[in-house]
Amino acid sequence: MKNLFYIAGLVLAMGLTLTSCDKEPEYDQFSSDGAVPVPAFTADGNGFFDGADIANAFVKINLDVFTQDNPYANPSNDISVNSVDIYKSFNGSAPIFHASVAPTYPQVLTLTPADVTAGLGVLPADLVVGDVFTLTYKVNTSVGELTNGVSTSIPVSCPSNLAGTYDVLGEVIVGDFGPETNNYTVDLVSLGGGTYQFVGDASSGLWSGSYATAYGAAAREPELYENCGVVTVQTISDQFGGDFQMDPAQPAPTYDPATGVIVFYWNATAYGEQGKMTMTPQ
Predict the structure, then answer these.
(1) Measured between alpha carbons, how far is 208 from 184 in angstroms, rounded to an integer?
(2) Which of 10, 122, 198, 269 is deepest in the core (most CB within 10 A)?
(3) Could you state, in order of their start, the residue ranges of all structural domains in the chain?
């Protein structure tokens, strides 16, 4: 007979919010004329290089420049932008010059891995998920070069869209009451960055079914991670003093991008339960 271990806790949280009533000045008296680049990824492109398809990866950046004349510092001339110099770095390396953009703004820049790797000592084929390119900008104006803290990060990543409701074929291979087959649904809720929260039982229905009735157990709801088609499942407590985890003795989890089907094996270390989850998107 299993014994459940329960931990009860009470957390008290107090928050104190302070607000300021200082009046904003009606005019910001810059010490000099201002010109600031305003880069933004376009809606018809990604904000990253697709690590699963580097050969065809690209990003689009809409580059605009905001200017503000300061009559106190420069009463006789209006500021004008001659060009914007773009610098690039890779994984924190020292930045090098990339290109100078002509004075027509806004302007859409299309960049490929081949564009941004040139001169940085890395080839597009060498890129892996987790690599990051950083673009910085220098604005050349009628009153001189103006530096700023604006930058654009372009990570090498993969799109991930596993959120939704799944029909589950839950197969209990080893359990206290013998093999079981359970059919039910679970939801995967996106937490961002390829991380998803199970809402529903990842134990093939064992913890939320037979074990809930016999031992007062609750559904196992780990996080699921997907990165360029590779799926892993978080290790969490099995409620009996061990871990609920991916079964290291079975094949690794699989994800079929054509059908969306996710399959993984699990086990629980305290008493040796084992099972298989087959999840088909609705």
Answers:
(1) 11
(2) 198
(3) 34-157, 164-281
Among 230, 220, 213, which residue's Cα sits nearest to residue 268? 220
CATH of 164-281, one of 3.30.70.100, 3.30.750.200, 2.40.128.120, 3.30.450.20: 2.40.128.120
End-to-end CA distance of the chain: 38
Cβ neighbors of 51 (< 8 A, separation 6 or more) are: 57, 127, 128, 129, 156, 157, 158, 228
pLDDT-based confidence at residue 143 (cuts at 50, 70, 90): confident
Confidence at residue 52, expressed as pLDDT on a 0 to 100 scale: 83
Structure-block tokens of residue 53: 């398809």
Average pLDDT, the chain: 85
- Same topology, domains 34-157 and 164-281? Answer is no
Q: Which CATH architecture has domain 34-157?
A: Sandwich (2.60)
